[in-house]
Every structure is written in C-alpha cells, then in structure tokens.
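Re: Re: ligand-bound prediction request (bumping)

Still looking for help on this. To restate: I need the protein modeled with pyridoxal-5'-phosphate bound, output as structure tokens. Inputs repeated here so nobody has to scroll up.
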Amino acid sequence: MDPESFRRFGHRVIDWVADYLRDPETWRVLPDLNPGEFRRAVPERAPETGEPFERILDDFERLVPPATTHWNHPGFLAYFATSASGPAILAELLTAALNAQAMLWRTGPAATELEQSMMSWILDFLGLPASWDGTINDTASTSTFYALAAAREFASDLNIRELGMSGRSDLAQLRVYASAEAHSSVDKAVLALGLGRRGLRKIMPDAEMRLDATDLARAVAEDRAAGVRPIAVVATVGTTSTTAIDPVPAIAELCASEGLWLHVDAAYGGPAGALPELHWILDGCDRADSLVLNPHKWMFVPMDCSVLFTRRPDVLRRAFSLVPEYLTTTDGDVKNLMDYGVALGRRFRALKLWFVLRYFGTAGMRERLRAHIRLAAEFGEWVAREPSWERLMRSHFSVVVFRHHPPGVADEAALERANARILERVNASGEVFLSHTKVQGRYAIRLAVGNLRTEERHLRRAWELLRQAAHDVRS
Ligand code: PLP
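Reply:
Sorry for the wait, this slipped through. Here it is.
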C-alpha cells in the first residue's frame, strides 16, 4: 500500500472508529446470529489476486460489526466490563505501525524501557513497593502461569529446571493452594506446569466467599504430614464470581513462615487499590512474591495487557531464560523481555498504557474508577429496595450479584430456572448484556460496570428490562 493510499484509507478507518465510538448504541450489544452464520459469509479460500482496499473495508463494515459482541457498548455489563479508550486505540495503531518485537533490548529499546517506566508508574499509582519488577503479558492467565512457574523454580532444591518432573521417584507431589473461588486460570496453570489436578488444593471459602486462612494453614500442615510438598498459594483480590477479597495479610504471614510463594490475582480488582478509600484491599500485597493486574480489564486499555509484578525477577528469569546463540548481544546489563516468559517476541504494549495514564492522569483514572463503583452501588440499592429481588453478595468494586427471589419461594431449582430465563430475555433485547454466576450453589445474575461510556441511564434501562422480564416470566 503506497503512502498516499494508506493516508486515504487511514482517514476512512479513523472516521469509522470515531463514529463507532460516538454511537456504539447503534449496535446490538449481543449480536443476533447463529453459530457458523458469519463463517458462511467469508469465502472458503484467500483470493488469488489482491482486492481493492475499498472493497475490504466495505466488507468489514457490512459483515463484522453486526457479528460482533460489542465490549465497547455502554450496555455491556457482563463478566468484567472493559473499555478501549480513544488514546489507547490510537496507541494500538502506532504499535502496529512500529511493529517492534521487543524480545531483546536492542530489538525494541523504547518498548523495553517504556515498559519499565510504566511498571514504575503503576506501582506508584497503586502504592505498591517501588522496588518490584514488572513485565507485560497478553493475559492474566499467562501471567499466573508464569508466576507459578517461578514458584516451582523457587523450590530450587527440586532442581526441576534441570531434571524435569517425569520419571523421578525422589519428587513428592507438589501442591498449590487457592480458594475454590479462584479463577480457572490457576487450574490451567497448574495443569500446564505438569502438577496435575491433584497439584491444586482448593480451600472452601467462608460465608463472604473469601479464602479461610485457618483452613489454608490446616491444609498445608495436613499435606506436609502426608508427604506432599506445598509450593505456592494464590490469593485473589476481587474474585471473578463475587469480587471477594481474600485475607492477604494472614495468607502472606503463612506463606512467609512456610516458605511458600505467594501469588496475588488482582487481575480485575487491583486498580481500585489506587483509591485512598480502598487502598486497604491491597493490604499484605507488599509481601507477595508476585501479583497480576489486568489493565485491559479496568484501566481502559483494549485487549491485551496484563501486568505481572514480582519482587523476585531473578527467579522468574531462572524459570524462563534461555539464550540461543543468535540472540546473544553485547548490550551489557539491560533487560531483555524474552527472559521473562515463554514468548520470544514481545508486543509494544506499554505504549497504550503510557497514552492512557497521561491522557487521563492519575486523578482522572481515580475519578472514573469511583464513578463505576458509585454506579454499581446505586444499582445495588435499587435491587435491595425491591422486595422480590435480592442482592446475594456485597461488593467493594463495580459488580452487583443478585437475583429475582419472590418472597416465599424456596425451591432453588425453580429460582435458577426463572433467573436464567430472565437473563436470557434481557440479553435478547440487544440493549444490555449481563452474565451469571453461582453463589454457594445459588444461581445469580451479575452486573458489572467497567465501560467508560456506561451512564446511569444504561443501568436504569437494565433494571427496567430485568423487572419487565421477571414479570413476563412469572405470568
Ligand atoms: N483472574 C481473574 C480474577 C479474572 O476474573 C480473570 C478473567 O476474568 C482472569 C484472571 C483471567 O484473565 P485473562 O482473560 O486476562 O486471562
């Protein structure tokens, strides 16, 4: 594409994005289509000869948005709602243009050093130890996998880097501990590390869905007595289902006395620690060995951007560093990002963080986080005031977990059926999208505020749709 064509098409693309961001509500938040329908609209083979770019953009406009679930829609209230903010979208364009593969410092000096600066900025924003090291990965699942790989390496007497794990009669069953409410990425990391399902012991949460530190201590002691080797604990600040906060100070104390690696999953909840009134959610995290936080969840940057902090970068490096001849350099004491994970090539993800943190400023970031928490609290009050609705768990964050529960109905299976139908009807509207969970076996609807464009009117509409659907389902 010659530069002048690029300029012309670039303007058209930016115009499309600007219109999209101005009027996201033009689209259904959840598309109305059947599996396979989109695929059928795409030819089976790549074209033999190149096509005019106008036609490619026409097809994008015609086919893709109607078959997309619009995470940038203000009515997106499912899972953990997120935002791709303007400055971050523009940064992504520049990232693609530069196409830096920052595996080595010399293959991406700005990408490498800006990543280091952004890690310091985020540590400062959250009030976490300035001495920590951080790297950016694609997702929290990857970050947690890397953290637990470091935990396994931290048990250095096992010599797993050299000897591996298979065929060893000298190796005890290794075990990681987490709340039963921890994210499934912990299970996946344990599986991928070859520890097997039995390598993860899940601790039943307390009434507020937090990991019980006394039960954790008992489990560790029991396992040691049975010849199992505990290696790590994962604590969560903001669980996926109900945003519960595990008691990190007590868990950190136990990990310190037992010599266990403590990984904190603050993928969603972490940013709220930047608010002085909520800084306590990060209590004890300064004693963690690693902590993951996803700017692509609640820091207004688009997929993908997950930050893994550790106070033991040397151990993380020991788990992953391997330098083939062609990647050796004489650059001296520099950080080479390829040493901190499986991926060799590293995207210039720090650019979007730089743009966002500068564009909003830390005060602007805090203001927006507070606005989301306030909106969710307001919605929670509407639910709590209505006798036939019930809030199942309180949240310090921007999520409301609730269900329709007419007085006198005690049949859990009937409640589940009714709430699932309510949710289905509401989501079929195309105006809002909510998701569900289970809290202590009870089916619940989940509303998450996290999009920069969500306003009170969107929540009012969601509430109206929910009540209407409850009425329709009952009659
Ligand atoms: N940890 C928590 C608490 C989550 O809620 C999620 C996803 O929602 C993850 C980890 C995994 O995030 P990712 O999609 O970045 O792997």
